[in-house]
Amino acid sequence: MDPLWINIFRKKLDDESLAYFLKHLPIFSELSPRALATLENLVHVRNYDAYETIFEEGDPGSGMYMIRKGSVQIYACDQSGAEEELARLIPGDFFGETTLTAPAPRSASARTMEATELVGLFRADILELAERKPSISSSILLGLTRIVSERLQAASQEIRRLRKLTGEQVSRENIET
Amino acid sequence: MNNPVQKYRGWSRAQAAMAFLILSAAIACGLAVYSSASSLIGVSRTAFSVLFLPLLFSLVLAFLLDPIVTQLEKLFSRTVSIFIVYVLTLGLATLMILWLVPHLQEFWGNIRTDFPRYTHQAIEGLKRSMAALHDRFPFIEDYGLPMKLRSWAEQLMAAILAQTPQSAMKIGGLLVLVPLFTFFFLRDGRRIMSACVALAPNRHFEMAHDLSYLVNRQLSQFVRGRVLEAIIVGLVVAGGLSLTDIRYAPMLGIFAGVTNLIPYIGPIIGMTPGLLIAFADLGVGGQFWWIVILYILIAQVLVDNFILIPVLISRVSNLHPLLVFFAIIVGGKLYGVIGMIIGVPIVSVIKITLLEIRTYRRNFRLPEAALESDRPHNL
To answer: Rounded to an integer, what distance in angstroms lies between the CA atom of residue B324 and that of residue B341?
Structure first.
């Protein structure tokens, strides 16, 4: 919705409101109502058609997207241009959170699979909020850090498991030769 | 084909009449669209010229007050913070006006008697130097320069006297509009900005949003730096001048501060009236040389070039001198004296925006560039 008009349509059914949606995301589940109200004015709601590109690998990444309606495919292209699907995301999922705090190119591409409503939260808004309301921005960033570190832990466990697997494979090959 | 009247070049009379009707309707429509478009352009040009100055001043004021409002916002809501800042600013402005009004009255009271005296002195000086020149080079013709200078000075004085009430009306209008606009820019600036950015198509939204933030940050730094620089230079000049016996020290300080907004030429214009008045009133002596040193060495070299510019102004906004001249000439042509002052900052703003976009494009591959470089792979 146009940010100028958000205030006028404030009275909506609770479970239809943006604040309700944000509150039920794991990142923002521990935010106070005041912080949620601030966040509601900070995010950008964007509507996409089916099969519309959200971003492509290598694009400048400046924020994360949360899926409110519809579904999103995350994919990567190899050297020959063939697409490999990495994930299929549904409402309540979010993606692109790694570029929220540090500017980096997107590491994969994303496109919608049907008509989709995304809620975007971008670095510029967080930086600006950090100057105006440091406490609210830090509680938002804490939630984000929690999720990112959970994912990081999962990833490092995965790396350890894979390394173990390849190590076993290499030692087996050594024995065979 | 038998009847050439009925069939003209293969068309029946009805068809020809229809074609004629359609053509004339098309021409009429075109004319109507053209005239309404040109009147629309006229209307929008009028609207723009009416709104331009108040919008510009309120944007600058909003950039200046925004950091204070942001600091207060940690304690109060944004609207309350803006009101607090407004009350403080109003108090400061009232003090400033109370201090300035006696000086202004003195200025206006004296300038009518002083200005002819100054021009008279200048004409006398010119006559003397012309006479000296004639003594040395008798073959030079007398161009009647003193008379030209006199008539020019009289015209200038008449213009100042005639235009003062008019510009006072304009300033009165600005005093009402600028605080109003500034209030809304301060309160809703972020929403207005994001509503504008939201118009961008999905594919380019993220980049537009990021760029708007970066450009906004650079611009606010630039505007704050420039205005602070002008205020400090003005204060230094006014303070230094008030140590001497020169009259109109506060006015000359304000003039030097405002003209300091123009790079290269501004400081020279800013010091001219001060030096002329000092020369006419005080003569060439210790005080005159102190004023020269104050204008050139203290205000320009020491305070402005060594302290203010390195601290306040980023190198990004440096303009080539040629570009500065273009900006001043075009600004002067479009908006007169005010155009000359704001022309250079506006060109700097455009330059900052373009540079910010270029840095952004360098740091990341743009979507189009990425697509183009990927194309050979896909083929």
So the answer is: 11
